[in-house]
Every structure is written in structure tokens, then in C-alpha cells.
Amino acid sequence: MRIMKPFIAIPIGDPAGIGPEIVSKAVADDLIFDTARCVVIGDKKVMENAIKITNTNLKLHIIQDVNEGIYEKGYLNLIDLNNIDFSKLEFGKVSGMCGKAAYEYIKKSIDLAMAHQVHGVATTPINKESLKAGNINFIGHTEIFGALTNTEDPLTLFEVHNLRVFFLSRHVSLRKACDLVKKDRIKDYVKRCLKVLQQLGVSEGTMAIAGLNPHSGEHGLFGNEEVLEVMPAVQELKEEGYNVEGPIGADSVFYLALKGHYNSVLSLYHDQGHIATKTLDFERTISITGGMPILRTSVDHGTAFDIAGTGKASAVSMIEAIRIAAKYYPGFVK
């Protein structure tokens, strides 16, 4: 079921970073106005300042409920958590106050989505050090969303243009990532990744498994992970009826998927897929957290503390994150 202009919740991220500025720019953008009804979660004083910095001339409209919003051009509808002492806010600085506030914005967004008051959440950058300083015991968005939605091991999917990339492992060392390339793990991830694709409306096509070693190890000449783990996993998955191929050399598989030969790629470690997607188009590489009962998209850049408060930050990625949320929300409508 498609609803005209879905409600998309947008937590403003770390107030000391560029989050409030890119939110202001995105809400003012014509494409987003035509695509979604944005519900911003943040702090009134922070957003007033962001609107001033970015010169977007938006009218700030404070709401308690999404149905109170004025979804007309030139308005920014804000749920104000009033959790920042603006006199103590320093752009570009690690701050426990800002880390705690960022977490509270995310939590409120998740609450709205779990209560079906919004159709998706598009998140902005947070800072891991600020979270820690604010006594928030999570290292990032994925872990927060997993915990607050009772989702074990959420999946990360990157989308940029026609390329979709899942990740077998995320924030572990390269040595440990290689150790995680195991048959059973690959099978489990492929099955869950395909469920995510189905929920996003992608049911046609084949998933490709990237090779780990150069040229997928050349049948064990230099590296045997493909022979011992990847190939048996793919063979068993095929026997069980799953549309999957691999291993396919990482120097070509992402290009082939971009051209439509595959509907997605399972990257075997963090940087393998990050390099492929971000080299293609850094600003339009969007992260989607899969396997949860709610939809979450995100920019895939940081807080950019070095330019925070200057108004220089590009909103291209924020605009794309909101657009992707609006694109995929029908699979999450109850």
C-alpha cells in the first residue's frame, strides 16, 4: 500500500555536528517537499540556529504529534525535546550533553516508528565519543536500533544508484573479518538478506557473493576460504532453492551488480563494500538497516566537526536518505 507523501522522522543527530544544518537544508529542498512529510526530532534552539546558519528561511513549527504538523512549503515541523543548554554548545567538540541528546532524538524517532505514527526514520550523523561521554552504552546507530526494536544482529545494506551491497561483517579487524567467512554464517546472512530485499520490494534477480581473496583465490592457489567456506555455502543455498551465485571476484562483482547482472552483493568485509559504493558516489551512498520491524535509512558520513556551524555542509546525502525512506516505506506499512 502506498500513501501519498509518507511521514519520515528525522532525528537531528549530534547538535555539535552538521546534522541540524543538513536537516534544515533537506527540509527546504523542493524534492523532499514533494516526496515526504518530514517530522524533525531535536531541540528548538539548535534548529533555530541551524536555520539561521543555512539561511533556509524556514518557519519552525513546534508539534507534539505528527498530525499537528503544517506540511506546507517553508515549514519545519519539530518535536522539541528541549535537551540542550545552548549556552554550553560548542560546534565541533565532543560533548556528553550532545551525545545524550542525540540518543534521545533517535529513541523518540524509533518510538514513533514502532507506534506506526511515522513510516520510516532517516538518521543523521552521531559521534561515538560523545555517546560515550554521555554515558550511552552503544557504539552507533545500528546497535541502538537493534536494541530498541529487539532485533538481534540487524543487517546493513548500502544502496547507491542501482547497486545494493550487504555486509557479512562490520566493525571488526580485517583479520577477524576473514575468520568470520564461514559457511554457516554466509548461509544465514544470505537468507536474511534476501528477506530484507523482499520487504523492500526486490524479489527478482540473483544475489552475488563477493570473493575474499584476489580472483577468489584461484581454486586455492592463494587462499582457501572460497574453496572451504564460500563455495560449499553457495552450493547448499542453491540446492535449497535460493538465487545466489559466487564467489565472484571483488574486482568485478560490484560493477556487474551496478549494471544489473545481480540484484545485490554480499560483501565479505566492511571496507570491501564501502570502497565500491563510496567510490561510485560518496554523497549518494545510503545505509539501510535491515531485518527490523521498522524502516531506517541514513546518511553514510560523519558529524564533520571541522565544518560544523559554518553552513558549508552538503545536504545531498540527507536528501537521498529521506528519498530512499520514502521509496521503500510501503513494505513496512501495517
From TrEMBL:
Q: Give the keywords, sorted.
A: Metal-binding, NAD, Oxidoreductase
Entry-linked Pfam families: PdxA
Matching entries from InterPro entries are given as:
PdxA_fam (IPR005255)
Necessary cofactors: a divalent metal cation
Identify the domain of life. Answer: Bacteria
Q: Does the keyword Lipid metabolism apply?
A: no
Q: How does it assemble?
A: Homodimer.
Matches recorded under PANTHER family: 4-HYDROXYTHREONINE-4-PHOSPHATE DEHYDROGENASE, D-THREONATE 4-PHOSPHATE DEHYDROGENASE
Which family does the entry's similarity section mention? Belongs to the PdxA family. PdxA2 subfamily.
| Name of the protein this chain belongs to | 4-hydroxythreonine-4-phosphate dehydrogenase PdxA
Protein species of origin: Defluviitalea saccharophila
Q: Which gene encodes it?
A: pdxA
